[in-house]
């Protein structure tokens, strides 16, 4: 409505019309998403696998000599086995969604890559 039409409506009805100002509703406060126990276990499993991968690379680079790659291989195999066993025991009674299975597969694949990388480093140290 323009000024003139508002003035005419006011003259006819005797009531002054006011413009309604609608303010948008305040958004609800953001809540931090709470992870369930299954997701916490899977997150720890994936982070542990990634950390083991980094430690594998660091062990191959830092530990020199003839025994360095074999020490790295032994530590990686032991840590990967313990991490996989702990995660499997915690996740056994839970029903996993497709996303949970994907995270579990990624973590398991990272463990396998870490062991293969450590084994390759040990074999290459024998050849070289």
Strand fraction band? under 5%
Total DSSP E strands: 0
Helix proportion range? over 70%
Number of domains: 1
Descriptive report:
The chain is mostly helical. The chain has one domain (36-127). Helices cover 71% and strands 0% of the residues. It contains 4 helices and no strands. The chain is elongated. The mean pLDDT is 86.
List keywords for this structure.
128 residues; mainly alpha; elongated
Strands, helices and their partners?
Blueprint: H1 3-13, H2 37-62, H3 68-91, H4 98-127
Quick take:
With 128 residues, the chain is an all-alpha fold. Helix content is 71%, strand content 0%.
């Amino acid at each position: 409505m323009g000024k003139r039409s508002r003035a005419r409506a006011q003259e006819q009805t005797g009531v002054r019309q006011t413009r309604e100002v609608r303010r948008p509703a305040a958004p609800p406060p953001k809540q931090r998403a709470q992870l369930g126990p299954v997701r916490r276990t899977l997150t720890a499993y994936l982070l542990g696998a990634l950390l083991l991968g980094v430690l594998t690379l660091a062990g191959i680079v830092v530990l020199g000599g003839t025994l360095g790659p074999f020490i790295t291989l032994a530590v990686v195999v032991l840590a990967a086995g313990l991490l996989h066993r702990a995660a499997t025991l915690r996740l056994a009674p839970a029903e996993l969604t497709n996303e949970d299975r994907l995270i579990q597969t990624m973590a398991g694949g990272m463990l396998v890559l870490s062991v293969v990388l450590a084994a390759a480093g040990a074999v290459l140290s024998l050849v070289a």
